[in-house]
Amino acid sequence: MNAQRVAGLTALITGLLLVFAVTGSAMSGGTGAFGNDPSASWQLGPGMMGDSHTRHGMMVFGSSGSTPTTIPGATEVRVQAASFAFTPSQIWLPENADVNLTLTNPAGDRATHDLTVPALGIHIVVGAGEARTVGLRDLAAGRYDAYCGVPGHADLGMRAAVVVGGQRP
Fold this sequence. Notes:
Distance between the termini: 59 Å
Strand order of the largest sheet: 2-1-4-7
Helix content: 10-25%
Largest sheet: 4 strands, mixed
Strand content: 25-35%
């Protein structure tokens, strides 16, 4: 590999890291993994559990850093992100109760996906072969839009509805 290629590759990687840093800072309101508080690797919104790094705002976590605490004894709801779809496409969560929400991504998919629910402040990122669980508390009843925030994935069909409370069909 010649010096020009090494320099070009280094510039590309540096640029991508800068884009991720700016995006992360904007999403976390200037604090968290890429913001003013380097000790915070994720953030939690209302109704979500965490440890001493809990902050107000959107929860952002993924392959690196801490993961939120699960709630012992809470019902687990599992969602799979694969092949540009969520299974199930309608995610039912209990109202005003404790629940552990787990996002899985099978190893064969080979793409990173996330589950983003802006109205509930949820953003869970999983790489291929990974699973992440977050404990949620006291969610307000309603129907919320969910999608994969990886560029282009929602357009390819990675959308879901999160229903809190009500009767399952």
